[in-house]
Amino acid sequence: MPTPSDAERTWEAMLRLHAALLPRLDRVVAREGDMPLSWYDVLLELRDAGGRLTMGQLSERVVLSRTRVSRLVDELVDAGLVAREPNPDDRRSAFALLTGDGRRRFLAAARVYLPAIDREFATVDPARLADVADGLEALLEAVTGDAPPGTRPG
In the list 2, 28, 30, 137, which could disulfide-bond 116, CB 3.0-4.6 Å? Predict the structure, then answer.
């Protein structure tokens, strides 16, 4: 088998790191933040969008559960964290709206999630971590054409 390219090595490392850390972070957020990480992902996107997205927009933005967005929103509606609103311009779609309780619960979970991320990377040299973050943000911009989102919870 040929030596993997740098692009292949980067992709494999990102996938392996994601697979290693996601279950650990999910356990912390579920236990201490009182919600699944998939809920946090949806609430984060709604919060970053000013509290309102169509279901299609939300599906494009979530990171963890693209295929389950409708079911996740149903769960969040049942929990009182999100509301659905009909889209007057398109009867086939609806808006997902972040409720006040959803915003409060998101912020409480962020106070658990963000320090958990920092703990997972605590043994990595800070300069190396900064280099990796800069490199991945540059790759994101090169691949998508979009500037990195900057710092945000999650």
Answer: 28
